[in-house]
Amino acid sequence: MNLKTINPVALQALMSETLFSHGEEVVATVADGQTVRQEVEAEEFIYQGDKSTGILFILRYPDYPYFSPKAEEAFIKTIGALKLTPHNVAVVNLANVHNPNDFKRIMAFFRPTRITLLGVEPTSLKLPAIDHNSYMKGRVATVFHTFSFEEMFADVEKKKLFWGEFKTFISS
């Protein structure tokens, strides 16, 4: 009997080995001897929004797919004030085990021109240290390092510092 699925969570639960693919059919035998076939898409990251705009937000929220409910509300209000929406920026959560924690792969996949690290330390991506609410210009993209929304909720001063620099960063 052959099982067919495109659900990566189902495949992960059924499979006893790790497979890598680049847009071709994957055939695997699962623990009970059944064969699973899946057409694997070339998408290397699980993210929300639109990567074609060049604006990328990178975060690391282990307890949520993207943001906590309160942080999501703050995120929508923040980018909305700059005429952006969750649909015309890309958001990737590096706490998702599917997403590589590799800056070169992030750059190759998203091709961003402006990256905001929300509570993600640049050194965790093998980038040079960047002070909070500061940015570093690279050859292709500018990286803005700031606090997570939870850190800003706990300290109004951090929120004020973020907003002043973020407006300049996004508008540049």
Key traits:
172 residues; alpha/beta; Uracil-DNA Glycosylase, subunit E; 2 domains; six-stranded mixed sheet; three-stranded mixed sheet; 5 helices; 9 strands
Describe the structure.
- The chain starts with a strand and ends with a helix.
- About 5% of the residues have low confidence.
- It is 28% helix and 23% strand.
- The protein has 172 residues and is α/β, with parallel strands linked by helices.
The geometry reads as globular
Rg estimate, integer Å: 19 Å
Number of strands: 9
What structural class do you assign from the helix and strand content?
Answer: alpha/beta
CATH class of the largest domain: Alpha Beta
Topology (elements, then pairings):
Blueprint (H helix, E strand, L loop, with lengths): L1 E3 L3 H7 L10 E5 L5 E5 L7 E3 L5 E5 L9 H12 L9 E4 L9 H8 L3 E5 L15 E4 L4 E5 L2 H6 L1 H16 L1
